[in-house]
Amino acid sequence: xxxxxxxxxxxxxxxxxxxxxxxxxxxxxxxxxxxxxxxxxxxxxxxxxxxxxxxxxxxxxxxxxxxxxxxxxxxxxxxxxxxxxxxxxxxxxxxxxxxxxxxxxxxxxxxxxxxxxxxxxxxxxxxxxxxxxxxxxxxxxxxxxxxxxxxxxxxxxxxxxxxxxxxxxxxxxxxxxxxxxxxxxxxxxxxxxxxxxxxxxxxxxxxxxxxxxxxxxxxxxxxxxxxxx
Length: 229
What we know:
229 residues, alpha/beta, five-stranded parallel beta sheet, 5 strands, globular
């Protein structure tokens, strides 16, 4: 079955361009369009797409709130609608907000067509499309926008084993499974198992949300150098 995609953008010409690009791939199918967040939520409920290509800045209900609503009702229904957010700027506070709202990743609007197609495929497969190092730069820059809270890394540690806690810190630093395995002298399969356990215990969807979680809970200090590879 082709991957079904819902396009959300307040500019008709932009939607037309994305439709042309996505429908050039035989395994992707654009099943609907929406011009704002409210239309997106209604269309997502009706069409149940695999992926929502979501603009962030729109009049009325923006992409952040629409993403929050879509992901909040879709998961309990057993239909995991994944949101791939679109932004004009790679350093935009709305990017952080939309990831916290449940988006699986984000893509720049001026990305090459092939990258757009690949990003939709990656998100549809259940993986995150934002590279952790890119997300780390975003979080380092916009960390002051997070609600102020005391470092509760100790509370996180009660949910995780010491090894899982260590792996989470390295994931938040943007390290791949292979790099973590080499650093901790573990098998890559073991590291993958630890990451899966972390996501399950902390009720997180993917590595993107794990990075955000680590920053929010004080496990990583913005601007502080990580462990040398």
